[in-house]
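To the team - LLP complex, inputs and output below.
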Amino acid sequence: MTETLLKSPPQPELLLRVAERVGTPTYVYFADVIRERIRLLRERTARIDARLLYAMKANGHPAVLSIMKEENLGIDAVSPAELLLALRVGFDPDRILFSANNMTDDEMEFAHRQGVLLNVGELSRLERYGRAHPGSRVCVRVNPRIGAGHHDHVITAGPDSKFGIPVEAAAEILRIVERHGLRLVGLHQHIGSGIMDTGTLWSAIRVILEAAKHFPPVEFINLGGGLGVPYRPGEAGLDFENFDTRVVEPLDEFLTGDASRPAVWFEPGRFLTAECGVLLVRVNTVKANPERTFAGVDSGMTHLLRPALYGSYHAVSNLSNPDGDPVPYDIVGNICETGDRFARDRAVQEIREGDVLAILDTGAYGMSMASPSYNLRPVPAEVLVPGESDPGRFRVIGRRQTAAELVADVLGRAESRRD
Ligand code: LLP
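Output:
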């Protein structure tokens, strides 16, 4: 059935101006939205004075990272390149947690040399780290055996998950820690992404809090990210109004009984950046077959993978015809796959060729999952709207590559492989 509720885009006139001046496809990020989400999360966690890290995999643009730095967040980095980028943007090593999974020896060595804390989620890796760097500080990622998320692919705890050390293995963790004189300063878990229910979140948090009793006192417990956001019109997102009573208050109570009370860390990605972003695309082709009408745009799954990979919903709005009557469309991209579809049977204000569409809530896991390789299409340009600090203005923060530049990259890489 076609949904008829529409979601409104932020600042439509400005978005149209961006589309005219910068062209399409273009990701636009509203800095004020990021700052507002940080403020909201800080407010909600004030009682426990939680420390916030940003999971940069959600959107690692240096301009976005700079906002996080200005707002005094730390960083969750999951690869050597993410770590390097965070350092280059100016984050202090002691504000970065290195959480790569299935690290190689070289990756561990690299992160160790940068002076960042390693978050290790495998017993054998912990053993190797201890052997290589006895006496080091270390954080251990546990699997609390409860997972959650918007799709099976993003549930990162529980019996099917590759992440973390089963929470029951405390004794083995301790044996390794003692054997190498490691200093276990933190316990970590991240149970999944796009969690909508504070009840599940709290159940998993309880598990790690209970598990912590089996370890000598740690400096912090990192509860990961995962806080869901509303993508559909009228959707509530994480039941954030219950976050105080269902998560923060019980956490506070639990920790109050703990003489060596550890700090609490969260490391969200999506919650801070999803709603700051819009992907602007232009409709090139409208065509119909007896069953459906297709609006074909100048972008595709290689620019925004979430709908093809998870069946994710992103609201679409026709900026060029905001008062048009809603008509059902399949909004499809220019990649040679039938799954290259942003929306199916979706009511959008009547679409004409040349119209500019806004695909909403694409600030997290949009550009960061984009790639120019498949079908060789350059990734979108990127624009930042600074907001209050520079009202009504925007800045191009990512130039669109031309087809010729992309081909030069491909040839350049092929060249260096010759010997
Ligand atoms: N911490 C760790 C260790 C993580 O692996 C992740 C995300 C986060 C924090 C941040 O999770 P968030 O707060 O953003 O939910 N590509 C998927 C999401 C995959 C998330 C993977 N890990 C999507 O587009 O829905």
